[in-house]
Predict the structure.
Amino acid sequence: MKTLRLLLGDQLNKKHSWFKQIDHNVIYLMMEIVPEMTYAKHHIQKMLAFMHAMRNFAKELQQDGHVVRYIKLKDPDNQQSFYKNILKLIEINSDINKFEYQMPDEYRLDEEMKKITNQIGLAHQSYSTEHFLTHRQDVCEFFTNKKIWRMEEFYRHVRKKYSILMVGDKPIGDKWNYDQDNRKKWDPEQTVPNRIKFNHDVEHLKDEIDELEIGYIGSVDVNNFNWPSNEKESLQVLNHFIKSSLDKFGDYQDAMANENPFLFHSLISFALNTKMLSPIMVAETVERYLKKDLSNLSAVEGFIRQIIGWREYIRGVYWAKMPEYGLSNYLKFKNKLPEFFWHGKTNMNCLQKSIQQSLQHAYAHHIQRLMILGNFMLLSEVDPQRVHEWFLAIYIDAIEWVEMPNVLGMSQYADGGLLATKPYVSSGSYINKMGNYCKSCQYDVKTKFADNSCPFNSLYWSFFLNNPTLIENNPRMGIVKMQINKMNEEDKGLYIKKSKQILKNIEQL
């Protein structure tokens, strides 16, 4: 008798215990289906990266001796459904008597797997993906009976558990967090390293997508595709980052540059989220680098905090709060997403560059996502569900478990402060401080009420004037509260009037 094992597109972990032994009575099933490409109008590079990595993973499994059934997008017998493809394979192979799968990381797929196991009528079993450092419910259990959930507490817990950046029971350098050292504004004299090049040819994959008339956004150079497609290439990206960028990553991780979309960021998020890279391996590799040069402690800690702190915490919040979390709208905002978010044609230079970069590369780093794009969306009172849909569609690393809490919680404050201790919004001054977008923008970042004043300025102050409860009892908003208390009534009225004008004519910005 045989066992059928399903592998999803983000379960490309070659180190999983499933693959330690060759068993010809085990059939591994992978598939490309239209519904997974159309539940959001994804970026074309996102579709291609998943297809390319999945096909390479299946090929490697076959080369290792495993039995693999891979259903390609245009295969004539593709039923374009997880359930129907599984059922057909079971019907063809009457000796299959057990179905196994690794637990999905998205709620919708987790629910679908439960339905499938009930429908196919076989013995079944689910397994861990063996990827994360924590279990689904660890965050929820860690914060039991606590009103406030803070990533920092959970991060320290994970560091202690895995002895990362620790000397005994104390953190290396006697500090847990070096975030204050990681906020240098952009220095144009810095030399940014080139992105690693793979130059994959994925034209045949795009042809399959086009032949089925699957809609997408963004652009791609199909003959020079540079996202990693297997574990080996993912390790190359990681090592390239360590050698060329890690020493500068800490200083400039919050910086933004008009002329460079990548700066000193690692570009490993797609590899991590598809499980081609392991978070514990990444953390330990970067930690070994630190031991060669302790002067890079702030950069190493800042990077590792993202990998084993924020990433694990975000996943825990997702599983603790789904499915209700997906409907979060604490501020009850209902505005539409401006059309220029789909094409980038706006006179606001920071938005134009960040959106067009996202459409070109399926990538923007976290400060562009949070303090340019998300900031503008929140200040413009856009319905957070529309914001979520946009972020899920456009970024190559956007899988719901990690994208949704980051967008609804961290970026849009739609969960009312569970994830973020304050709304992450700013006026134009922060954007001007941390980057050089404002120097080549037709809007004036230093004025408030003129026709060409930076829209962020009036939108920012009107946001708090219209939502005073956000600052009343929040100790992190003390400075904002003090500034508003000092503001004369005329200026308050002008901010609100100006912001209404901006929102009414938002498509003309």
Summary: The CA atoms of residues 140 and 146 lie 10 Å apart.
